[in-house]
Each structure stands twice: as structure tokens, then as C-alpha cells.
Amino acid sequence: MPRISHWPYKRHFGPLTMHCEFPPERALDPPILTQHKVFSRAVDLIPPTMPGLPAPLTSSAPPKILKPRGEVSRLNRGGYNLQEKLGWSLSEYEDIRSFVIHLAREHLNVQRSWKAQLTPKLKKVFSEAKSRYPVLDDYKDDWVVSDFLRVYLKNSSTRAN
């Protein structure tokens, strides 16, 4: 095989640095949704209804209070203290708690845990507690009565075993 001593073409390497020029950026207009709009205080807050559409539903009842995050009495695990979260006076708190415990002794099997209780009996306790103390209606899904019962049934069922 013949040996090639030189290449038929010359090698060309680009420069080590490249210089690119970009045109200046144009300033963008602000989006339409973020423009400042001032509403007068005299404008009615309820939007007008269009003919043929039903009137908007207005609720005069205030929204119910949601259950706090975590589990009752589990302060070290992200839980909460029920008495602090409710913000009731000590006498009101103790009255309602003792009445719920009285209902639990009357209607539920206190030797069993919360999960082992029958739903119709729990509903009876909830309804009687709300009829005696209407403030319990302000809380969504009866979580206050439920928490009172969970703590009491946990303590009473562990004592029975």
C-alpha cells in the first residue's frame, strides 16, 4: 500500500471563540389579566341575572367550622388540643364534654373502641348532643362530638381490656 505523505486538502479548524450578536430584546407589554382595575364601593356585589337563567343561590347561613388537621390529643404527632381549638370557656367545655360522656354511657358500648361502635347509635348520640347544645351545629360533620367520643372511648376501652 502506498503511503500518503500529505493530504489532498487542507484541514481547517474554526476559531476557539465564537462571537454572536443578538438583537436587543423588546420590552413586553403586561398581560391583560394583570392590569389594575378599581371598583367602586357602591357597586352591588351580586351579579345581575340574565333572562332564562336561574337566580344565583345565596346562603344566609355562615359556613361551618372545619376540623383541624391532625388527631385529637396527639400533640407530639401533629395533633391538637381540643379545648384550645374550640376556644370555649372552661365551664362550657366541661358541660358539653360531660353530657357527651353521659350519652356515650347511655347509648354506646364503652368497652369497645370508636371503630367498633354501631353507626345508628353514634348518630343518636350526635343528634341528642346537638339538640341539647345548638353550638355544636356550627361544626362540620359533628367533629367536636366525635372527638369527645374518640378520647373517651379510647380511654374506657383500654381500661376494660
General description of the model:
There is one protein chain. The protein has 161 residues and is an all-alpha fold. The chain has four helices and no strands. The chain has helices spanning 82-86, 90-107, 119-132, 143-160. It is elongated, with a radius of gyration of 35 Å. It starts with 81 loop residues before the first helix and ends with a helix. 9% of the residues are buried.
Fold blueprint:
Layout: H1 82-86, H2 90-107, H3 119-132, H4 143-160
Helix pairs in contact: 2-3, 2-4
Structure in a nutshell:
It contains four helices and no strands. With 161 residues, it is mostly helical.
The helix tally amounts to 4
Task: Kindly report how far apart the N and C termini lie.
Answer: 98 Å
Could you name the ranges where pLDDT drops below 50 across 5 or more consecutive residues? none
Radius of gyration: 35 Å
SSE-based structural type: mainly alpha
Biggest sheet, in brief? none
Mean pLDDT: 81
Overall shape: elongated
In helices, the fraction of residues equals 25-40%
**Proportion of beta-strand residues:** under 5%
Number of strands: 0
Which key terms come to mind for this protein?
single chain; 161 residues; mainly alpha; 4 helices
